[in-house]
Design brief:
The chain is an alpha/beta fold. The strands form 2 sheets. Strands 4, 5, 6, 7, 8, 9, 10 and 11 form an 8-stranded mixed sheet that branches. The chain has 8 helices and 11 strands.
């Protein structure tokens, strides 16, 4: 039985501001126009730089980029498919973390000290409205708990009368020491292009049919999932 083709992707996250000072040797390495290299390196979000069929070739380029002071992520189709966004049916905040239950009533406990990042993801729905998803990226695992704000009472979740999703995010920042990433909305058009460069998508355990007033729009959900996966990968690569 033939194994599916695996592609390895070299991803550029945002670089330090002075990275564009001397790009000619980088352009020669990449065999790209210097103007294009500058555009990719000075982006404020992720870029897919190169794709390879062999891991060794991808690792070689990553090492050469590192020698130029350029940070990069190396991910494969297996990495992407192996990341799971686990939608929560219930969540209870305690003093040291949040206890989740998925839609099969299975528990997942997330200590605050294990949270490496939080992403606020506005995702369009088929009815034209916008869902607000909250992804909580953990340092220790590639399973990301996800909350759809429409399914939760934040008054109950943080025990604060009149609490909104923003109140929850403020408390989450205070408890974890991380800043909520809110960049998807302003960078959506660019990230849609980035998402199309991947042959695979992360795995999802979504709310069952009937729980949502309207399904998530497929292209928008794919963009959000790829972006959130790259955020989670960047967090775990800094450990």
């Amino acid at each position: 039985m033939m194994q599916p083709q695996v592609t390895y992707y070299i991803i550029l996250p945002p670089q330090r501001p002075d990275i564009g000072d001397s790009l000619r040797p980088v352009a020669r390495l990449l065999q790209m126009d210097e103007k294009l290299v500058r555009q990719k390196l000075l982006t404020s979000t992720f870029e897919v730089l190169q794709r390879y069929a062999k891991k060794g070739n991808a690792e070689g380029l990553q090492g050469q980029l590192r020698a130029f002071g350029i940070s990069s992520l190396l991910v494969s189709d297996q990495d992407i498919r192996g990341h799971l966004f686990l939608s929560a049916a219930a969540a209870n905040r305690g003093a040291g973390g949040i206890a989740f239950r998925d839609f099969n009533d299975k528990p997942l406990y997330c200590p605050f000290e294990d949270v490496g990042g939080v992403a606020l993801l506005p995702v369009k729905c088929d009815d034209g409205k916008t869902a607000t998803l909250i992804d909580i990226h953990r340092r220790s695992t590639n399973i990301t708990p996800r909350l759809d704000a429409a399914l939760f009472s934040f008054e109950t979740l943080i025990a604060k009368p009149g609490a909104t999703v923003e109140d929850f995010l403020i408390e989450l920042e205070a408890c974890t020491g991380v800043r909520v990433d809110r960049r998807l909305g302003e960078q959506r058009e660019h990230l849609e292009t980035v998402a199309r460069d991947f042959a695979s998508v992360p795995s999802e355990f979504c709310p069952p049919p009937g729980m949502l007033l309207s399904p998530y729009e497929k292209r928008d959900a794919r963009t959000a999932n790829i972006y959130s996966f790259l955020l989670a990968t960047q967090i775990r690569n800094t450990l």
